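Hi R.,

Quick one: here's the PD(D/E)XK endonuclease domain-containing protein sequence you asked about.
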Amino acid sequence: MEDASLFDAAGIQLPRRATGHSDGHRPRLNVSRELELGKAAEHLACADLLLGGWTAYTTDQGLPYDVVVDVGNQLVRVQVKSTFCPKNPQPSNRSTPAYFFNIRRAGKGGKRTYGESEFDVYALVALDRRAVAYFAVIDLPTSCVVLRIPGAHYGFSTKQFRTFEGATFEHALDRLQPASTATG
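And here's the predicted structure, written out as tokens:
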């Protein structure tokens, strides 16, 4: 594997829920599928960062961020948002599907809105492709982010779409630097 990311493999589906242990006696845990997928996304983002040479840790429940990255002179707080697959918001329009991320709300049902300065970077994870895109919070002023499917063909309206390509942690970190040096 040369410069390809470990999580860029298209078309890989997450396994279905196990029905039990091979002996049939292990009971299934009653865990929220949304919580399981969110945890999977957090671990994928953390693994992507670790494999990229960063020192990264997942955090405990209750914090407004999911992963912390030690970049030497500071800790960068990363909020992970995920989606399982692309969606077509206007099927009657025959639009090309894309990944949609609601990034301003937290908690079950999105009951809580994130406050300012609760984290520094978003990690947007497409679980079906195991792809991760990183954006500095200052670069995402809206409540919904749309990412193009890698390799898909889109029309001329490119203003509202972002891509996974080039959305590296390094780029997001570079976007944070002016804010941190201005205060120091």
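The first strand starts at residue 55 and ends at 58.

Cheers,
M.
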